[in-house]
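#onboarding

Welcome to the new folks! Below is a worked example of what a typical request in this channel looks like: someone posts a single protein sequence, and someone else replies with the predicted structure as tokens. Don't worry about understanding the tokens yet, we'll cover that in week two.

Example request:
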Amino acid sequence: SNNYAYWFSPNESVYVIKNNKNQEVAFFSFIIEKDFILLRRLFIDSPFRALGLGKEVLNYLQLFARSCNKELRVNVYDETAADFYVHMGAEKLFSTYRWKLLENNEGYKDE
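Example response:
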């Protein structure tokens, strides 16, 4: 078994999904915040995508969040994930802003 502790924060609940051959095919993690549950990570190994695993995880987390009387949130950093979550009924709450490093890593752009 792999030691995932290095990658996750202490208050993060981590679940590994295995198939019937005992192969790890996906994992997800979340944190219970005061007013919401934050889905921190949802990863499905490429050969096992588009089989409904992500949908099952989200259905489970939505049910769990409702039972805690909290809303479910996720931070999204790529278009594919954003499309998936919107398809699953999520609505945009905030946007991410960043300060880009210059090509030579000497500082930030001031434009």
